[in-house]
């Protein structure tokens, strides 16, 4: 694998950079001067570095043989490199390159780029900041832009005297330049680090600050006037930094940590060392308006990025094929820390529904990929910032934690951090650390999950219950979402840790399944008539297919809430996936749903929402079955509404608020036309129109679904009211409520107006796909509209997004072309992308099309099942 990587030549190694940049925020350009200390390993007359969209004025080299001037500067646009060719040979030894160059402050949210925003007085302002991961440090200054080429960075910025500027490290000096209009800010040397983690920002900001218990100065920079909106993130950051110091056993090595809200940002956030950048909605919390969902999001984004300060920044993957070491690990840690900060959020229960579902959905496709994915050209990495690296990656870490136990798990991490700090690692280094801390052959187990794609379904071949024990015969098989046949030469095996739960709790014993079949015996803990739940707490990424007897017992456990929320949610999510794959009868799933009639747990309801919503979507074109699904949905949602109600209660906790949000979301899909629901939504919306700050009548968690109910029942006036809020809302999170719901407007004319609005320039490039998605999700016509719009405006969309991060185009593809339930649509979409290839998004297209075909299989299964008979629905 490693021999295939495309890397810069190793004859010259960088040691330190001194980069000085002078941005012009009016002309959108900058001048750059850079000194790179290098070590010449083999005499050469050419030095090759990465560079993209830069202009070069000169390059000289002081080396052991004297001073050399580059006589030729060859820019290779395709390889994003620059070659400096010298008239004489550079001698082996230490040398210094001096490069003079210039660049553009682009508006593509990558490299050194500009953002526009309106300040509190309504004046248009410009700020500049950076986004380098994965390959855009080269877009700001020439460098060896590879994660293993770690160096010390000394950054200097020349900026207008009235602006603030910062970088990874604290300011070292600040000098006013002749004329008084500009100042030169020099920052302290960074530790040895990878180029993708370098960052700087220039603009006007407010900030809030605090000191961690361990003495790190933390600041949150916000747009002027919004300082208090940084308070929540600041608290999360201070607490989690202290927690990580202890957890990883190596203290955060920099004297400060800045976190900045950037007006235009392609991703959610970026972990630059000492200078974490965020999309505004992912860091700012309006203390009055913010929903519980937003608070949770901000907390987990902060804990995720701060986890990277260790996993990623201090210890970095050697090459992008181990990206999961960064993202999977940070995604595990994000939950661990949020759980420690807010135990009542029950993060791990939520994890087993949200992250787990995303991992298992994607990894059940043949177009998935292994966690450890071969990356030849670095550009391929953009495509693997996906649910495999993040969600399956964190899922296997969770599994390791379950098998190792907390103590061995943590001990291993501490020695891994100490051993590899300021260095680079491969996945095997992590296994080695855990093997040493635990004495267990954990690498063998983990490899089976990280080196091959997919995951198993554990099928119960038979079970018997006697003498207070259950004997269960199991088989493992590669699980594919469409149930397609696994040919003999495709067979895979995993090393599966089997954890079990019974009505007396989660058992201590872990059975290791290494072969395709295995028999286990489970002690029922004194409750001979009780249940055995496999994959206790859903800690292993797999599905379980029970036999009738075990399922019958589980139903009793679900009804009586005798098992935890993760397990109740897990049985349901597995059942749904098994039905799609043809391994369980649809009628059984519908009957299972009835077991959740008394359910009032927020997390289990999230799983229920997934299943009910999925069934509703899949059967949209079959009125008979859809009618049955809608009725079941209404019945069970109605019971929840009766219990939970619309009004916030004094004693409500975080999860109660989330639950009410889920409930109203479900109402907006299943019950939007019921009189009682309409009335509730209408008076709340009327209050909101009078005063948008009235969070009592219309709490934030409900805004987007209530807007949907209003839009679905209203005409042009409702549309104008909701859309109008986009213009008057000053908070981005509030604007997002509009973007997420606006497509629910019923008239085709208005839906089309939404789509056109999204690409008119009125909505930021970072956000416009949300509104496309809302049209797409709204109805069958909505789906057709967005797909046609995508085709018809393909060139324009490409032009808009071509140079920005590939993840934005991925989002547009999924939000405008995904989700159909027919083979014909799959063919059509496949053909379109064959004729209009998008190499950077190819994997996403493949996955989208494959998921569509699986949906079509699913619909066929439903139509040919007892769900098509009136007698089935009557029997419920
Ligand atoms: N390192 C990533 C940011 C990133 C993503 C860079 C894709 C290049 C390509 C960062 O740590 C991250 O994972 N951000 C997430 C949010 C996080 C809470 C899951 C994001 O931006 O969505
Ligand atoms: Zn990350």
From TrEMBL:
Its EC number is 3.4.11.-. The keyword Cytoplasm does not apply. It comes from the Eukaryota. One of its GO terms (biological process) is peptide catabolic process. The keyword Transcription regulation does not apply. Residues 14-197 form the Aminopeptidase N-like N-terminal domain. SUPFAM superfamilies: Leukotriene A4 hydrolase N-terminal domain, Metalloproteases ('zincins'), catalytic domain. PANTHER family: PROTEASE M1 ZINC METALLOPROTEASE (PTHR11533), PUROMYCIN-SENSITIVE AMINOPEPTIDASE-RELATED (PTHR11533:SF174). Belongs to the peptidase M1 family. Gene3D superfamilies: 1.25.50.20, 2.60.40.1910, Neutral Protease Domain 2, tricorn interacting facor f3 domain. It is an enzyme of class 3 (hydrolase). This is Aminopeptidase. Residues 531-853 form the ERAP1-like C-terminal domain. The active site is at 305 (proton acceptor).
